[in-house]
Structure formats: structure tokens, C-alpha cells
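Annex B. Sample input.
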Amino acid sequence: ASATLLLLLLLIASAGVTWMSISEPTPGVVTFPVGWVIGGLIIGLICAMVSMFKPPLARFLSPVYAIAEGVVVGALSRAYEAQYNGIVLQAVGATLGVFVMMLVLYRTRIIKVTERSRRIVMGMMMGLMGFYLISFIFGMFGAMPSFLTDSSPLGILFSVFVAGLAAYNLALDFDMIEWGERNKMPAYMEWYGAFGLTVTLVWLYFEVLRLLSLLRG
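Annex B, continued. Sample output.
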């Protein structure tokens, strides 16, 4: 719990500093720091990949990830807020609400994580990443699926699905943390579990933010 709290504090602090560093020359238009966002994404991806294959390094890489991803969160949140007033507060509240709900459902064993459910969710996540990659490649040639960016019923339904997948992934993180405590795993596993939970929360927040923007659109 202490490791997760520290990572979230680092992420929030980084996001706050980034938010305040972005200027808004005219109402509704922000000076978007593209370089910061790309740099934060690259650093975050490297930290995630290395930690995945070298869990002992998570205690060192997870704070770096939290700070780098905080830059991305702060910049994108500022851009969304400039376009949709009040949306960030709504997204933060919804993310916290989903987190608490999933924790209660997991603790009361209404939601049970099994090997089968874990395989299904992981398979869906890999399929989603593959779909995003293919869409990105097609988008370079102007052929990106329209429902990824518009507020059509299909676009909203897809966003709800992805947000739901991110929410269920919280249960997988809770299960991994509980498994580590139950089996008295090495101390670095606490950081590894906290890292995974932070990654999922950031993902969930972005999906909620996107869904809210589609609903407003």
C-alpha cells in the first residue's frame, strides 16, 4: 500500500507541475507540449517493458514511470479541460469510484480471479493492443477507423468496452498483490504490484476521460 501511495503521489505531483506549466494564450486553446508527451510516453513504455521482464528493477523504475507518466497525464488533462470545462474533475471522480467499486467487489469475492478469467482478459488486452497498432498504421495513410475518434454509438460502445476492460484489470492487479503477500514474496514484488496497479489506473483514467469527451461530443 505504501509503494502504491508513493507512486500515485509522484504521478499527481508531476501532473500538477505539468498542468501549471502549460499556457493558455486564448480561452480554450493551450500550448500543447508535444515533445513532453512523446518523451513521457517513451520513458514510461521503457520502464514498463523492463519491469515486466526484470521485476526486481521495479523498485527503481516505477518512480521514474510515475513521474514520466505524470507529465503525459498533466498535459493531456489540460488539453481536455480546455475543450470540455470540468471534464478532468469528472474523470478523476469516476476513476476513483471505479477503483473503490472494483476493490469492494474483489474483497467480497463477488468478482473472483481465476486462471481462465486471467487468460481471457490478457488475450483481450493483447488483441486490443494489436488493433490499436493496426489502426495507427492505417491512420498514417488516412484510413483510421472513424469510430475511434467520433461520438457515434459504435464509438461510445467501443470506449465503454475498453474502459470496462481496464476496470476488470484492476481485479487482476489486486489478485497479484494478494498472491504476493500470501506467499511472502520478496520485497521488490510490492513495488512490482504497485507499478502494475499504477499503470492500470492511468489507463483507466485516460479511457474514462475519452469516454466522457465522446459523450459530451
